[in-house]
Amino acid sequence: MTADASHGVDTPPELVQLLTPEGERVEHPDYDIELTEEEVRSLYRDLVLVRRIDLEAVALQRQGELGLWASLLGQEAAQIGSGRALTDADMVFPTYREHGVAWCRDVDPVKLLGLFRGVSNGGWDPAEHNFHLYTIVIGSQTLHAVGYAMGLQRDGAEAATMVYFGDGATSQGDVNEAFIWASVTNAPVVFFCQNNQWAISEPLERQSRIPLYKRASGFGFPGVRVDGNDVLACLAVTRQALRNAREGQGPTLIEAFTYRMGAHTTSDDPSRYRLADELEAWKLKDPIERVKAYLFKNRLADQEFFEKVDAEADALGKDVRGRCLTLPDPPPEAIFQNVYAGPHALIDEEREQFLTYLAGFER
Amino acid sequence: MTADASHGVDTPPELVQLLTPEGERVEHPDYDIELTEEEVRSLYRDLVLVRRIDLEAVALQRQGELGLWASLLGQEAAQIGSGRALTDADMVFPTYREHGVAWCRDVDPVKLLGLFRGVSNGGWDPAEHNFHLYTIVIGSQTLHAVGYAMGLQRDGAEAATMVYFGDGATSQGDVNEAFIWASVTNAPVVFFCQNNQWAISEPLERQSRIPLYKRASGFGFPGVRVDGNDVLACLAVTRQALRNAREGQGPTLIEAFTYRMGAHTTSDDPSRYRLADELEAWKLKDPIERVKAYLFKNRLADQEFFEKVDAEADALGKDVRGRCLTLPDPPPEAIFQNVYAGPHALIDEEREQFLTYLAGFER
Amino acid sequence: MTTLTLAKAINEGLRRSMEDNAKVLVMGEDVGKLGGVFRVTDGLQKDFGEDRVIDTPLAESGIIGTAIGLALRGYRPVCEIQFDGFVFPAADQIITQLAKMPLRSLGKIKLPVVVRIPFGGGIGAVEHHSESPEAYFTHTAGLRVVACSNPADAYTMIQDAVRGDDPVIFFEPKRRYWDKAEVDLGAPGLPLDRAKIVRPGADLTLLAYGPMVKTCLEAAAAAEEEGRDLEVVDLRSLNPLDLEVLTDSVRRTGRCVVAHEAPVFSGFGAELAARLTERCFYHLEAPVLRVGGFSTPYPPSRLEDYYLPDLDRVLDAVDRSFAY
Amino acid sequence: MTTLTLAKAINEGLRRSMEDNAKVLVMGEDVGKLGGVFRVTDGLQKDFGEDRVIDTPLAESGIIGTAIGLALRGYRPVCEIQFDGFVFPAADQIITQLAKMPLRSLGKIKLPVVVRIPFGGGIGAVEHHSESPEAYFTHTAGLRVVACSNPADAYTMIQDAVRGDDPVIFFEPKRRYWDKAEVDLGAPGLPLDRAKIVRPGADLTLLAYGPMVKTCLEAAAAAEEEGRDLEVVDLRSLNPLDLEVLTDSVRRTGRCVVAHEAPVFSGFGAELAARLTERCFYHLEAPVLRVGGFSTPYPPSRLEDYYLPDLDRVLDAVDRSFAY
Ligand SMILES: Cc1ncc(C[n+]2csc(CCOP(=O)(O)OP(=O)(O)O)c2C)c(N)n1
Ligand SMILES: Cc1ncc(C[n+]2csc(CCOP(=O)(O)OP(=O)(O)O)c2C)c(N)n1
Ligand SMILES: [Mg+2]
Ligand SMILES: [Mg+2]
Question: Which residue windows are transmembrane per the record (chains C, D) (predicted)?
């Protein structure tokens, strides 16, 4: 058969897993990872803290303090595992849901809240954190990531870029163009797709008839599916892909197989389009519970540790909430700031007219 | 290895071939074709005639009668082979170079010339020929083809669509979105990519690092590479793909491996970017010579036949040239015609003003 | 007469269109089970099936491109672009194909494709969800561009858009989706390319479309208290313009203020100002003034009340006009 | 002083920019060995290497998207869009990303990306090769939009565009690529955002940019024979406008005609007419009139001479202006 046998409608997808939902540590022939107890505890702490930030944000939205929130509930392991695989020199391009990765890049959670509160469209300095701004136009950041990676190549930098996107995003022309650019230039970029099974109300079948990680084969670079609810596997697979990229072996597509346990955003009502059963099934694969079970069963952490983390989470939640409530609105003239880097006569004129107009109300 | 082993940087591409450059008939395990002598002679005639039309068009452009011409030289077999695989009910979406397919669909060549002469942007009735208008914006017609195929599905029609595009086009977002739509909807569409090795001055390596037919595997449908200079193989492979499509087996990507023997268009100067040697090597694989050799060696045609075809080609060339020269320019008011199907006040106003203005010169 | 929200009025109009003509399809992201993020297509998939109400892959170019293909096969697709700011991936298909193919075919091809775009701000949303991209399309020859402002119009305009043989960019004022009004489900509306004087007045003409019609009506009501009699005209059709109604109004009042949410600079208001000035030069007591968004990207939502022209900004322009 | 064609002047300007700053890159389809279909980048890849002069995959969204990424890494990409009609696949990256990212970052990000677009008609080309899409970009806040009209300006303007820290859409009048003129390779040009009176006059102001500047100069020369003294202003910058120069000119002459090749309806001329009318209301003897393409897709080339505003069409508008 000359028709490419790998078109793969029939091949069952493999899933890299290092920690089962029950918290059993399992081996994988291609990916393994040596972590200290401390490191695993630290990952657990990350997972709990980012979930808490997320819960707090959802609550703040319910109380009218945020215009919207896109919850990461269920995707903590995908984000922490991949986020902790990064080195400082690596550059990250997120979508709008990577609060866990932002956490790994030391972006103040309140800055994320600010965006959803409507005080800015961005808010942090991407260069300071090597964490780009959230991008809302689906898929467009994938090309930025490849361009940045082309820059890394030209600089001879020992670094890679990693770009996040969802299952739905794989349908956008831009994402596929990014695959082409990356493969043709052999750019040091890792495509990290969080397949959370849903693009708002649309199940994966509306975007692809084969497992997403196989998309890469059509462009000539490796694709791998990892258990997105397994923080160890996500860490191991991403670390490997980033290393390959840094070493000049070009791009990798990682499909983190996970589940959006909450609504698409706080504006969404998933009961209109998916069954509660599905959620229940995924709850059994919770990304945090399995780490807890693992730590506990293997006596790598005790009750005191878990309580300490919970307490830390409570404090963090409180802190984030408190600072969110006091986030100042930008002054009206901020509308005109930073539109251009250089002077711009039209902006200057409009700003002046507007300030005169506003002043009229004070008289 | 979980990384998809089929990412295929190393796999050597197979090429479906039924007729060698020397005119030897060879077998292929998956594709074969039974043709009468008459049918093979007819294919030969097609090849010769469309090459002649093309040569005439190039000459007309040189003489200032056309603004531009995109020559099909070297791609005759890909176009006639695939074009003759179509049934009347199938719908075709061409690029701007499918003069051979247009021939198979009974589009008057003078209408093609008209477009390049600048008397219209289209000129034939797509529904009359089931041959859509030439599309110049690279790749955009691939989505039209899939949409049309979705229509065929809804109509329960026993037909497929076939869409042509080049190697360069495979980099466009639209083409990849078309792959997604087609695979997700299992639309009856055949993607026919003429890989003529060049996108103007850019060699294939700027578009892909693996053989193009493998792109399909990333989307979950079959891809096949065929010798694009072998009219029999192109016919066999396309026939099969169209049949599969009509029978509900969804899309196929065909990569016809061929060569653009001429310039990109009459405006282009290939000596700036490619070596003459390359052309010489491909001349040995000429799509017409091998059919001639086959017919001759197997005594399926005699000298008289070849002379008759040449004479027919001469007559056709003359006819096309003559009618091209007398192609009338459209009247100025044609600018305003057919912009909208319904009445449109602005167009009406501008037309009237313009005609009044023009009339002013006659006074 | 039935009381409907604007969103529901479009829903009813779509339903009617689909009942009348089996070739009418609805397609877009989340238009099926979810009924669209604004519920405009609510219930349609349930009643007309998945073949006629299509949840598409997440790609706007693909939505318009395949809709063109379906139209070539005789279908009449109504595409939903989920939010104004997400129409740009489809710009190429709209501008180079949808708008130009009929002429390319010398009239052999008709493309009855409707592109619905919820547009405008004022709902406290994040970036790209509050924009007004109409000027990109009014400048694109081959498209009709309309904007509805109220439930009754929305109900008939969507049906007319679907019925016509031209591509139509159909703007829906998203912050008015929940506004309710009486709708006569039996009455035919004003033709799609006609403007409507929604409040007659003698002193100045306020021109608006979509969400700003309501704002202008409020401004006119407020101005009345100050003794100014403002006429408010709802354009309804942006391309083509109903110049008869507009010219007549401006000639009568001698003053004109145009309001839209999009940035003023190179926005659609410029066309209105330029064209009406040509036609009403000797009647104008003041230049046609424009009120709109600033020449900046749409700001974060905590600033949108400053950015969006409101009653005060409109009245300020009215004052400036009377100052001439 | 050296005699250069406009195409060669841009080439020299690019070369100078690349010599001055190692971060400057050139990228696009066929810009390498071929030197671009108009040879504007001729020889650059040979001299600066494949890492700085990049033949890209055939995808405009990818060109702009990766250029943004390169700019984020500190590079200064100059992208070529092969023809005006092929910019639309990149519309999303230009409008939602390139234009808006600096504000999104509260100024942390600068995007010094130049997008070169050969534009306009008059070369007998097939569809999509003769368009004038400037209004799509002038309406997009966050972008600077400029158009050069002659070799000397082209040489300095491209360097200024590359040197600035803002994204610039750089329009090049393709049918003037082969026009020759003296260029002083040492002299600094007028700042990028300044307009230039290219022919002073007292009776009427002709406003133009890109290819129409020459046409307007010819029209002014012809009008002179009829005793009319027309001023011609080359805008150079479309966003922002140099309103001081424009307003002053129109106030002096009291009449204004705007000329561009793009369709008049909702085109950039509307902004000029509307804004100048606001600023010069009491000085205007006639409405600002517009001459441009019709509200139709660009016609097949055998009709383009009718479609494109030529000397006669410009003078006809001048006559109409004087008829007021
Ligand atoms: C170009 C574009 N089209 C539409 C949208 C509206 N939208 C926001 S999120 C979303 C679904 C995204 O799904 P996916 O890529 O799977 O990411 P997830 O939200 O599941 O993380 C859509 C359609 C958008 N933001 N951008
Ligand atoms: C969107 C778009 N970008 C650029 C061009 C200019 N252009 C015309 S043909 C061409 C190369 C096409 O190469 P390929 O797809 O291989 O087809 P071929 O011409 O070799 O048949 C380019 C870049 C175009 N027509 N459309
Ligand atoms: Mg998803
Ligand atoms: Mg090619």
Answer: none
